[in-house]
UniProtKB/TrEMBL annotation:
<dbReference type="InterPro" id="IPR008271">
    <property type="entry name" value="Ser/Thr_kinase_AS"/>
</dbReference>
<feature type="compositionally biased region" description="Low complexity">
    <location>
        <begin position="83"/>
        <end position="95"/>
    </location>
</feature>
<protein>
    <submittedName>
        <fullName>FhkC protein</fullName>
    </submittedName>
</protein>
<feature type="domain" description="Protein kinase">
    <location>
        <begin position="211"/>
        <end position="475"/>
    </location>
</feature>
<dbReference type="GO" id="GO:0004672">
    <property type="term" value="F:protein kinase activity"/>
</dbReference>
<dbReference type="InterPro" id="IPR000719">
    <property type="entry name" value="Prot_kinase_dom"/>
</dbReference>
<dbReference type="GO" id="GO:0005524">
    <property type="term" value="F:ATP binding"/>
</dbReference>
<dbReference type="Pfam" id="PF00069">
    <property type="entry name" value="Pkinase"/>
</dbReference>
<keyword id="KW-0547">Nucleotide-binding</keyword>
<keyword id="KW-0067">ATP-binding</keyword>
<dbReference type="InterPro" id="IPR011009">
    <property type="entry name" value="Kinase-like_dom_sf"/>
</dbReference>
<comment type="subunit">
    <text>Monomer.</text>
</comment>
<feature type="region of interest" description="Disordered">
    <location>
        <begin position="77"/>
        <end position="109"/>
    </location>
</feature>
């Protein structure tokens, strides 16, 4: 029993590190066979009482992960016992060779997502090792040999049954089993592609016009970003940010409020139409997921272009063109009453297709911390963003509590320019930030230093405004650059609806506006006794009145 209890404690610590389970409860749960039919019923009341899950459906998802984790730990324990009880061979034994193969095994496109849908993520390293050993290179081949894989992974009956059902779900379409990332681009509109995506749970959106989730592009604290496409739109590709609502908020007491903040981010993005801001096209919410469908920008983060540059920093010519785009985009953002609050090279994407030699085309992304500060009902008061780019009024909790405005973005813009030209952060301590104390290490020109110092000022009112930034002598040194800037994208029609009086419940009204935004894919923001709606071209305005 001690062994089972230790394994249960370990699994809980790995899956639910912030949830306390006492010894008495652990002893009870350790007696439950996770593969038994009534196993979930035994765990269910404790998962809900400890605020891990809110209902049976979400508890079931947590339990599947815990069960997979316990099975994985049991196999590791058995492998260790087998190795320790036998004489050590002079040549590497098979398990050791397998481990080496796991480490060097190339990823199979779609395999990780497929195993995740089966709650078998813990088996990913061994599955990759098996693929490398038998010469399997695609998800299609994995499916064709699924029984061999199940035997290699030593799956018990329940997980093996899930894998069999997943494979059988593909077969009614009589389709060739291929990975999402390796789909034949010319065959994307065929019904069998949709059937395969549906079987893999890679569809979202309306049934008559769904999106198909493809390969993973990246991830962060809130969710993962994937490539996606829409068959009825001639295979046009997008980026989709997937946020697991149950997983993301299961331990948060104010989960509903956090969800509303995510929708507020979407509402802000719907109102922004600029050539140097990543555009939001659609928002889809299900019980389990929130999907933000955005413009696909392929070229990586500006941060990577800086650190991988042959000089480990950009030249002034290169930095000047990026700065022009950022200043122009920020000026537009601020004109909408929005403050970004997390401007940094990691949140600036490079558009590889539009870029030219020595001239990077960039777009600002990640408005997760953005806030509408000019609505007459709210003020930015919280410490959000990235400390290396925080203005003094944000880094100082006392000052922060009294509120701040869009001028925090001016400080961040100055830090971004410094990082582009110097290749390092300007500050190494909070005290340096409070005093705006920094040094230059590269042979940066005097006019560039002057612009950086004009932005990195302790007092917000002393910081150089964006209009003056674009007129600064360092920026206007090359007059040809300004003329090469892309014009802002076509902005939707803006219509204002007067409320006549102050809303009796601002929170409730904002919630209703966000529902309106999600349904009709338009921005609807409360601004000083008015609702400002930004209509996009493809919206049926008459439908919104019904």
């Amino acid at each position: 029993m001690l062994k089972e209890r230790a394994a249960t404690r370990h699994a809980l610590k790995l899956e639910l590190p912030d949830v306390p389970f006492d010894d008495e409860l652990l002893e009870h749960l350790a007696t439950v066979d996770t593969e038994a039919k009534d196993a979930l019923e035994a765990w269910l009341p404790f998962l809900i009482s400890h605020s891990v899950a809110s209902d049976e459906e979400s508890a079931s998802e947590v339990f599947r992960r815990l069960a997979a984790r316990l099975q994985s730990l049991a196999r590791q324990s058995e492998d260790f016992g087998a190795r320790s009880s036998s004489p050590r061979p002079s040549q590497p034994s098979r398990p050791e060779a397998s481990t080496a193969t796991e480490q060097g095994a190339p990823p199979i496109p779609g395999l990780e997502d497929w195993l995740e849908t089966l709650s078998l993520s813990a088996y990913l390293p061994k599955a990759r090792a098996w693929c490398s050993k038998v010469g399997v290179a695609t998800l299609q081949q994995v499916m064709e040999k699924w029984e061999e894989l199940a035997t290699e992974l030593q799956l018990k009956e329940l997980p093996k049954r899930r894998m069999r059902k997943a494979v059988e779900a593909w077969r009614p379409s009589n389709s060739v089993l291929v990975s999402a990332a390796a789909c034949d681009r010319d065959d994307r509109t065929s019904a069998d592609q949709i059937a395969r995506a549906s079987a893999e749970r890679r569809l979202f959106g309306p049934d008559d016009d769904p999106y198909v989730v493809l390969d993973k592009l990246g991830g962060g604290g809130q969710g993962t970003v994937h490539r996606c496409w829409r068959p009825k739109h001639k295979g046009e590709e997008f980026a989709v940010k997937k946020i697991a609502l149950q997983k993301q908020f299961r331990l948060q007491r104010d989960a509903d409020r956090t969800k509303e903040k995510l929708k507020a981010e979407a509402n802000i993005l719907f109102s922004l139409r600029h050539s140097h801001i990543v555009q939001l096209f659609d928002v889809v919410e299900t019980k389990e997921w929130l999907y933000l469908v955005m413009e696909l920008v392929e070229g990586g983060e500006l941060f990577d272009h800086i650190v991988k540059h042959k000089y480990k920093h950009l030249s002034e010519h290169e930095a000047r063109y990026v700065f022009l785009q950022l200043a122009d985009a920020l000026r537009y953002i601020h004109s909408k009453g929005v403050v970004h609050r997390d401007l940094k090279p990691e949140n600036i994407l490079v558009d590889r297709k539009a870029s030219r030699n020595g001239l990077l085309e960039v777009k600002i992304t990640d408005f997760g911390y953005a806030k509408l500060v000019d609505d007459g009902y709210s003020t930015a008061l919280t410490q959000v963003g990235t400390p290396q780019y925080w203005a003094p009024e944000v880094s100082d909790a006392g000052v922060c509590a009294r509120g701040y405005d869009e001028r925090v973005d001016l400080w961040s813009l100055g830090v971004v320019l410094y990082v582009m030209l110097e290749g390092v952060y300007p500050f190494s301590s909070e005290e340096q930030i409070k005093q705006a104390s920094f040094k230059f290490h590269q042979p940066t020109t005097a006019t560039a230093k002057d612009l950086i110092r004009a932005l990195i000022q302790v007092r917000p009112e002393d910081r150089l405004g964006l209009d003056d930034c674009l007129k600064h002598s360092w920026v206007t040194t090359d007059t040809r650059l300004a003329s090469t800037l892309k014009p802002s994208g076509p902005e939707g029609d803006i219509e204002c609806f007067n409320l006549g009086r102050e809303p009796s419940n601002v929170v409730e009204l904002k919630s209703e506006l966000q529902k309106f935004m999600t349904k009709f894919k338009v921005s609807a923001q409360l601004k000083k006794r008015q609702v400002e709606v930004t209509w996009s071209k493809n919206v049926d305005r008459e439908a919104t009145q019904r």
